[in-house]
Amino acid sequence: MLVVAPEMPWPANHGARVDMWHRYLGLRRDGWSLALVGWGGEPVSPELHRVFDLVVPLPLRRAPGRLVRMMRLPSLAAARQVGGARFAAVLGAARPFRPAAIVCESIYGFDLARRLGVALVAPVLVRSHNIEFRYMATQFRLAQTARQKLQIAAARLHLRRYEETALRSAAAVLDISQPDAAFWHGRGVRSISWVPPAFPDLEDGADKGPGWADRRFDIGYLGNLWAPNNVAAANWFLDAVLPLIRQRRDDIEILIAGAGAAPELTRKIAGTPNVTLIENPDDAVALRQQVRVLINPILAGGGLNTKSLEMLFCASPIVATPFALVGIPEAVWGAYEVAGTARGFADSIVAALARPYVADAARLAARERFGRGAITALSELLLQEIAAHRDRSWR
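^ that's the sequence the OP posted. Answer follows.
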C-alpha cells in the first residue's frame, strides 16, 4: 500500500500524526508492505523506516505559485500541488513498489493521490479526520490573533467544494468518526466506513511505568498546543478548573505538553505556579506514564479526539468533557470520568487523585476494541476494497 500524507507521521506529536503512526505500525506488523509519500520531514527520520519500505519527502509549495493556486483551492491543498517534473520523479519512485492501493491521509494531498492512482491503476482511499469545512470554521472562530485568522481564512477558501469532490471521487472513505461518516453518507458519499484510531503497539505495555507514588505530575494534558480549539481547552482548564482544584489541593503539580505551544499559552503557563510546559516531547507515552490523572478538557473541534482513545492505554484515570468523546461509541464512555462543567471536572480530578488507579473491566474492553482487533478489521476492509477494484478492472 502507498500512503500519501499531508505531513510525515513522525514524530507523532499531535492527533493526526498519532492516528497515522500507530495505524501504519499496526498494519506493518499485520504483514502489509508500506510506502510513504509525504510533505515536509527532511531529513527523513530513521523512525519512518521502521514502518515504510520507501519514503519520498516532498517540499511544501511557497508563494507565488501557491497564491495562484489559491484562486481555486484551499491553501493547504494549494501548498501540496506537485508539478510535472516532480510528479514524474514521485511516480518513478512509486512504480516499482506496485501498490495494490493508495491511501490518502486527509483531503489535502488528494490531487497527487488521484494522479498516482490513475498512473498505477490502483484504487485511492481517503482517510477523513474531520468534516474539514466545519472544523476550520470552528478554528477560525476560536483563533486569537489576526495572523492566525488570516491563515485559517486562506485554508477555508473553496474548502467545502474541494472536500466534497475529493470524498465523492475516492474509491472509498475511511472516516475517523461515526457521526461524520453518517453526515457524508447523507450527502452522497456512498462508499464510506468508520475506521477508528488503533493502538495495537500500546496494548501490551498499557499498565507499565512508574508506580502511582513515584509519578512526577498529578494532572496532565497532552495535545497539540497551537490549534485554537486545543489552546481554548488548556485556557479553560487553567482559568476555570484549576482554581477550584486548588481550593482543596494546593500541592498539585500539572503538566501541559505537546507540539508547538502558541505564544499566548506559553506566557500564561509561565505565570501559573506549579504548571510545567513541555513542548514537542520526544516520547509522549513515557511522559504520560509520569502523570497520575490524565485530562481532555476539549470543548470544540471536529472528527474524533484521537488523544481520548490513546489515553485508554495508560495506567491512569481519564477525566474528559463530553465533547472529548464525540465520535466514540457510548458503550466505551464507561472507561472515562465524564464532566461537562468546571465544577464537575474539578470534582472528578480530585476524586481520581484520592486513590491509585487500577484498570477496570470497562478500560480493558476499550483497549481490546481499539488495539489489535481494530487493525485486523481494517486489514480485512482494505483487502475487500482492493478485491472490489480488481473485479471492476477485469470487467
